[in-house]
TrEMBL record:
Coiled coil: none annotated. This is Glucose/arabinose dehydrogenase, beta-propeller fold. It comes from the Bacteria. Gene3D superfamilies: TolB, C-terminal domain. Residues 56-375 form the Glucose/Sorbosone dehydrogenase domain. Residues 1-22 form the signal peptide.
Length: 386
């Protein structure tokens, strides 16, 4: 249940982590719960201060509106709108979510033309005939309610199980197309299946239809497919140069950051820098294997949550870099981006699983704790150390 808004005070926490994934739970949920206790962090340990803005019940994503109000999704299907200071909130929609396992009301992204059309795109997991799947939907924000809600796209086939929905949303820089991630649903082979949209990055029109001239349609693929061979894609973002970056959870090891290129096969489940959970080997990515390798990978895992590419001025030293929420690693992870190259940067212990990370209109970095272990999931603003 909600515990109310927390005081706007600096916060620091400590953490623990593990390395287990089970059916129905991602390596975010199953790799150890964060220790929720106050701790003194030595001065200078982090190059930012932390201020708690609000707390939630198992939040999944945060997005900012042009007037600095915030939208937050919660696992059980509630979409909240908060004032710019986080002190007041209201439920603007409750969606028919199947929230078992990794199911949730997931990503929220205002439309490119939000200032005029007030449209908000979002994703959620839902049950249907024959199983469950991830849904892309859209609504219109009017009178502080989300109205005219419509489902635009459903990834398929529907299958049994509660894992690897993915459901991240990114708009092309020109605002004409929507990119959407659909996980492999812990079924492995759909990621390589030409007709399935599972285990794929999809390029859609703003109405949820396959975008014209997608690169693999002529080869017999589902016409929505942009890239394939993915596992559980929990981050998707364009950089200032128009490059599309994606991060996904590997199996036992092998979490990835990928540069998404049209028509490429990223290898899952035939190639991975990790291994199966029962100890069976998976061939590593290697030159000439026909699969696009990750730009960065982790072993041990970080369990990547949301992905943000920083474009603000409050942290000028990090402009253009990627930031990833770490779930089992209870961390905020920075990745240096340099054109189409990437390398590991910093990793800061945040003391709780981080589900999402976003840049605010003020140029501050906001992290959203997962809160799926019975703890509060808090929204925390990061500001430069004075």
């Amino acid at each position: 249940m909600h515990t109310g808004l927390l005081a706007l005070l600096p916060v620091a926490l400590i953490a623990c982590s593990g390395n287990v994934e089970a059916p129905g739970a991602d390596n975010a949920t199953m790799q150890g719960a964060a220790t929720q206790g106050a701790a003194n962090v030595p001065a200078g340990a982090k190059p930012f201060t932390e201020t708690v803005i609000a707390d939630f019940d198992s939040p999944w994503a945060v997005a900012f509106l042009p007037d600095r109000r915030m939208l937050v999704s919660e696992k059980d299907g509630r979409m909240l709108m908060l004032s710019a200071d986080g002190r007041t909130r209201r439920v603007i929609a409750t969606l028919p979510v199947d929230s078992a396992g990794q199911g949730a009301l997931m990503d929220i992204v205002p439309a490119p033309g939000f200032a005029q059309n007030k449209q908000v795109y979002f994703s959620y997991s839902a049950a249907g005939d024959g199983g469950k799947g991830v849904v892309l939907a859209r609504g219109v924000l009017a009178d502080d309610r989300l109205r005219q809600i419509e489902a635009l796209f459903r990834a398929g086939p529907l299958v049994e199980g509660n894992g690897h929905y993915s459901g991240r949303i990114a708009f092309s820089p020109d605002g004409k197309y929507l990119f959407f991630t659909a996980g492999d649903r812990q079924k492995f082979t759909p990621a390589q299946d030409k007709q399935a949209t599972l285990g794929k990055v999809l390029r859609l029109t703003l109405d949820g239809k396959p975008a014209p001239a997608n690169p693999l349609a002529a080869q017999g693929f589902n016409p929505a497919v942009w890239s394939y061979g993915h596992r559980n894609l929990l981050g998707l973002a364009f950089d200032a140069q128009g490059n599309l970056w994606e991060q996904e959870m590997g199996p036992k090891g092998g979490d990835e950051v990928n540069l998404i290129l049209p028509g490429r096969n990223y290898g899952w489940p035939n190639a991975s820098n990790g291994s199966h959970y029962d100890g069976r080997d998976i061939p590593d990515h290697k030159p000439g294997d026909g699969y696009e390798p990750p730009k960065v990978s982790w072993n041990p895992v970080i369990s990547p949550g949301g992905l943000m590419i920083y474009a603000g001025n409050r942290f000028p030293q990090w402009k253009g870099d990627a930031f990833i929420g770490g779930l089992s690693s209870t961390s905020l992870v920075r990745v240096d981006l340099n054109g189409t190259a990437a390398s590991k940067g910093d990793q800061w212990d945040m003391g709780a699983r981080i589900r999402d990370v976003a840049e605010g209109p003020d140029g501050a970095i906001y992290v959203l704790e997962d809160g799926d272990d019975g703890s509060q999931g808090r929204l925390i603003r990061l500001d430069p150390q004075s």
